[in-house]
Amino acid sequence: MILGVMERMQRDMMKQWAHFFLTYKFALDEVETKLNILNEEFQFIHDYNPIEHVKTRIKNPESVMDKLRRKNMDINLENAKEHIRDIAGVRVICSFSTDIYQILEMISQQTDVKVIEVKDYVLNPKPNGYKSLHLIVEIPVFLTNRIENVLVEIQIRTSAMDFWASLEHKIYYKYNEGIPPEIQQQLKESADMINLLDKRMLALNQEVLKHREFAIE
C-alpha cells in the first residue's frame, strides 16, 4: 500500500514538472510568433528584415535541477521558477549591429512583454571577446484556468557574433572548461577580427543605402 502511494506521488510530481516545462514551451511559442510578426511587418514597411532567423530552446529537467543544486537550493517548482531565469531561451540572429537595438526597441514596445533585465555585451563585451545583447522578459501565458507569467531569456546578436560564440562554445567544452591561455588569447583576437568585420559590413550597408536613396531622388 505504501509503495502504491509513493508511486502515485511520484507520478503526480512528474506530471507537475511536465506541465511546468510546457508553460515555458508556450512562452517560447508566444515570443517566436511576436518576432515573426514584427519582422514581417518591418519588411513590408521598410523593405528590409532585421531578423535573419530565430532559434529556441528549453533547458532539460536535469539541467534545471543541477543548476538548483549548484545554488544550494531545494529542488522544487517554486525555486526553479523564481531562481532559474534561462529555462526558456530565444536566440535572434540579425545582419548588422544596428539591427540588435532595433529589435530591442520593437520588443520593448510590446505592451504585454515586460523587460526585466538587459545585459549589453555588445557595448561591453566579456573579457574573452563575447558579444551579444541579453534580455530577460516576462510573457503572460494564457492557460485554461489561469494566466502564468513566464520568464524567457532572449539573446540578440549578429551572424558574425553568433559564428564566433558557437565555435568558442565548442572549444570551451573540448578543453573541459580549462582553455589554455594561448588559446584564450587567440579566441580574443578572433573576436576582435569578427568585430572589425561587423563594422565593415555595417559601413558597406550604409553606403549602399545612401546610393539607393540618391538614385531614387
UniProtKB/TrEMBL annotation:
SMART domains: RelA_SpoT. Pathway: Purine metabolism; ppGpp biosynthesis; ppGpp from GTP: step 1/2. Pfam families: RelA_SpoT. One of its GO terms (molecular function) is kinase activity. GO terms for biological process: guanosine tetraphosphate biosynthetic process. Gene3D superfamilies: Beta Polymerase, domain 2, Nucleotidyltransferase. Coiled coil: none annotated. Residues 56-179 form the RelA/SpoT domain. InterPro entries: GTP_Pyrophosphokinase, NT_sf, RelA_SpoT. Keywords: Kinase, Transferase. SUPFAM superfamilies: Nucleotidyltransferase. This is GTP pyrophosphokinase. It comes from Paenibacillus sp. BIHB 4019.
